[in-house]
Amino acid sequence: MTPIIATDAASHKPDWRLLIEPLSEHEEAAISAQVQHYPQPQAATIEALKIVQEHQGWVSDGKLKAIANRLQMSPDEVESVATFYNKIYRQPVGKTVISLCDSVSCWIMGYQGLAQSLSQELQIALGETTADGAITLLPTPCLGACDHAPVAMVGGQRAHQLTPTSLIELARQAREQSL
Amino acid sequence: MTDNQSMHQPTNLPLSQHIKADGSVTSLMEYQSNYGYQGLAKALSMTPSEVVDWVKAANLRGRGGAGFSAGLKWSFVPPIEQLPGQRYVICNADEMEPGTFKDRWLMEHDPHQLIEGLAIAAYAVQAHTAFIFLRADYDLCAERLQYAMDEAQAAGLLGEQMNDAGFHLNMLLHTSAGRYICGEETALINALEGKRAQPRFKPPFPQVSGLFGRPTVVNNTETLCNLPHIFHHGIDWFTNLGVGDDNGTKIYGVSGRVNNPGCWELPIGTKVADIITLAGGMQDGVELRGFLPGGGSTDFLTKDHLDLAMDYGTIQQAGSRMGTGTMILLDDQTCVVGMVLNLISFFAQESCGWCTPCRNGLPFIRQILTDLEAGRGQQEDLEHLLQLCGYIGIGNTFCALAPGAAEPLQSALKYFREDFVAHIEQGACPHGNSPKVDVELVKEIHTL
Question: What is the C-alpha separation between B386 and B406, in angstroms, rounded?
Fold first, then answer.
């Protein structure tokens, strides 16, 4: 496959800036506010990625390049940061992300049964998104709520003492709300 | 602010005194009605070097796991006359140690306690910018901390002109995007600079050259939460709180198959058995076999260690670490090979990938354990695992992640070797676990 190379019309030189998906006014303002917290704009990379993700659900190539341009970095530098962190999504995710804690206390208290039941209910494997785009199911490292194990984050809400039935019910609710 | 110091008897459990059973947050008004922000006022009336000496004398040890003296840590920051200019303090609230939930408990219920403690630390090292580095997923903490910071700012407790000498402080909240390695202080500094969270080479130590090349102190949440009380009630009071060699209290936690999992503030040095009793004991039909005393990266101890005091020295002498003080219990219905496989899988995934023993060693161990759990193991695997624990041990890696990962494995091989042997001899997991299920479920998670 030939890579898509955007070239500048005048110089015919490749220019990644032509592939930028511009930041919205809101994103631009939110990122600028974060940049002010630091002596170097690059320090706001993680905040910028999270801001874009909050609006879009994930970080597309075009937006990643826009962040690079805004923070005076190369797209590769931003990509190296974006792919390092667990909670930055470089692929589209469903309207609701269900993060199921797979660490030790939740594992002891029944993580495997939860993962199997929910995976069957949604007809997807861990790491996948339902065909209707409603739900992405992800395993996640320790959520720091081991006193309520097993736990999951459903959207931004932490759900406690889950059973296969209660988890499936939460997933159904999330699905209904997203459609 | 009213001086109601004399109206209150000093409490023995200061860190949790505002925590309410209904889970609601302590407001600024409630916090201030019980000597809130008076510890900071006291510290601000002292010189910064007096503040450092005070905390050194209290022998407040780091509650994040390492147990290093907080005052001593601060004292490595060069005096402001020697090295003028910006310096930073950072609260390490990147709580991601498996089985650990104590800092979340403190931040969700009493955010002002942390803010006050962080302000005292900032004053001690003359930092005018302080960051709270909060892990991803702690959404409720983020909301409550930001609200409390705004409250304190509006009330003039933070910001410009905090004492006669004109000390000022800008406190900021950074929410991470999720990686266990961010808890390592130099990796945390890289993350705060917007980089991949790989640990840095030491020296230089952060106290000399840390965030943006400036002197930086990183302290754990619970450590900082102790400061307001130490300054309000004094060193003698703090020294008398512990029941053993260490001073103060500790937030202990218990998770696993107990009747009442949770966390409690207790005198530091409380017996292991007493903490498990608070957790309501084991659930019906399960028996305790062992425990990880302070999170996923500490060595197993067994039923023979229940009478030990949970303090730094005692647990270390027994061959483990108090770590974060949040115990994970192993019961007789849980497969120890599966439990260690789960822990190693966590550490393998969370390795930053910088140094070879960690990046390659942990997946290697994970594979051997997967084979053992699936009944495909051989006798020589056990020696091989021990050898690998040595390869990834202290001195062979860039940071403490891999040596920490080796701890539950090496101690499981010591105390529960018969469980590993049973897997080999029976050609299957005696508990009926099949790690294949996990592997089939997880499809290309890492491409997300």
Answer: 9
Residues of B within 8 A of A141 (CB-CB) are: 96, 98, 178, 180, 346, 349-350
Select the residue from A46, A53, A60 to test the B interface by mutation, using most B Cβ atoms within 10 A. A46
| Interface contact A139-B442, CB threshold 8 A | yes
Nearest to B448 among A71, A91, A102 (CB): A91
Closest by CA to A170, choosing from A123, A129, A121, A133, is A121
Please report where in the chains the tokens 């403490």 appear, as a residue.
B400
Residues 6+ apart with CB under 8 A from A112: B433, B437, B438
Which value, to the nearest 10 degrees, does the dihedral of the CA atoms of residues B317, B323, B324, B327 take? -60
- By C-alpha distance, the chain A residue nearest B297 is A104
Q: Give a yes or no: residue A120 inside a domain.
A: yes
Closest CA to B70 of B92, B85, B86: B92
* pTM for this model (two decimals): 0.94
Residue type, B166: G
List CB contacts (< 8 A) between B338 and chain A.
107
Q: How far apart are CA B425 and CA B381, in angstroms?
A: 13
CA-nearest of B439, B431, B436, B428 to B377 is B428
Q: Which residues of chain B does A107 touch, with a Cβ-Cβ cutoff of 8 Å?
A: 338-339, 342
Is B437's pLDDT higher than 70? no
Domain that holds residue A173: 96-178
- Cα–Cα distance for residue pair B411/B291, rounded to 1 Å: 11
pLDDT in tens, B195-241: 999 999 999 999 999 999 999 999 999 999 999 999 999 999 999 99
ipTM for the assembly: 0.94
- Look up residue A75 and give its two tokens: 């797209």
Whether A103 and B99 lie within 8 Å, measured CB to CB: yes
Can you give the residue ranges of every domain in chain B?
5-239, 249-331, 336-447
Look at B328 and A85 and tell me if their CB atoms are within 8 Å: no
Q: What class has domain B336-447?
A: mainly alpha
Alpha-carbon gap, residue A49 to A175, rounded angstroms:
26
Gap between the Cα atoms of A160 and A106, Å rounded? 10
Yes or no: domain B5-239 corresponds to CATH 3.30.565.10: no
Q: What pLDDT score was predicted for residue B3? A: 41
Sign (positive/negative) of CA torsion B196, B202, B207, B208? negative
